[in-house]
Amino acid sequence: MKARVFVTLKSGVLDPQGKAIQHALEGLGFDGVKDVRAGKLIELELADGTSDSAIEEMCRKLLANMVIENFRIEKVA
């Protein structure tokens, strides 16, 4: 079983990497980019039957910093 975990900064948390990407896009001539928020994607290969609660616990304990980040789990067929 595969799962994807998308980790993003919470709203209101400064995102210097996102700002750098936005500035670079503007420098390349891409107009209209109002904001960029950068995040990370973590792909997990899990044993069949791994519970949703176990995946959430992995996120809360290691994969995401719950003070400044949110996460979303997507199971992949």
Strand content: 25-35%
Order of helices and strands: EHEHE
List the uncertain runs.
Answer: none
Q: What percentage of residues falls in helices of 4 or more residues?
A: 25-40%
Rounded to the nearest angstrom, the distance between the terminal CA atoms is 7 Å
Helix/strand/pairing category: alpha+beta
The strand count comes to 3
Oligomer: single chain
Cα shape:
elongated
Number of helices: 2
Specify Rg, calculated over alpha carbons: 16 Å
Q: Spatial order of the strands in the main sheet?
A: 2-1-3
Short description:
The chain is 31% helix and 30% strand. It is α+β, with helices and mostly antiparallel strands.
Characterize the structure shown.
- This protein is α+β, with helices and mostly antiparallel strands.
- It has helices spanning about 15-25, 50-65; strands at about 1-10, 40-45, 70-75.
- Strands 2-1-3 form a three-stranded antiparallel β-sheet, with helices on one face.
- The radius of gyration is 16 Å and the shape is elongated.
- The model has no long low-confidence stretch (mean pLDDT about 95).
